UniProtKB/TrEMBL annotation:
Name of this chain's protein: Exonuclease SbcD
Residue span(s) of domain Calcineurin-like phosphoesterase: 1-76
Pfam families: Metallophos
Gene Ontology molecular function: exonuclease activity
Length: 107
């Protein structure tokens, strides 16, 4: 069985850069490529080892964008029949509420 491992994605807005969302767009594009590669390689399981988000302080004006990006990535993998396990990371990066809104079930 092929297993993919990713971690420290740090999805978030307001990184330093030419625009507040430029780094977010880079991360999203990179993770779309990663998902495509995982699917192409025929992985059956993905382990996300924490720090899915940049900041646990989820601000209302950014939260929907950040959570939607993570949700869409997880949904893409799930739609391809790939089981995905997310391990909560650093408390300063991974808010439990954001995981719940992203569709991640805790166990």
């Amino acid at each position: 069985m092929k297993v993919a491992h990713v971690g420290d994605i740090h999805w978030g807005l307001n990184y330093p850069g030419p625009a507040p969302d430029s780094r977010f767009k880079d991360i999203t594009a990179a993770m779309d490529w990663v998902a495509d590669r995982i699917i192409e390689e025929g992985c059956k399981l993905v382990l996300v080892a924490g720090d899915l988000y940049k900041d646990a302080r989820v601000f209302l004006e950014r939260a929907s964008t950040e959570i939607a990006a993570a949700y869409n990535w997880l949904y893409k993998l799930g739609s391809a029949g790939i089981e995905t396990v997310v391990i909560s990371g650093t408390p300063s990066h991974d808010p439990v509420a954001a995981y719940e809104l992203s569709g991640v079930r805790s166990c």
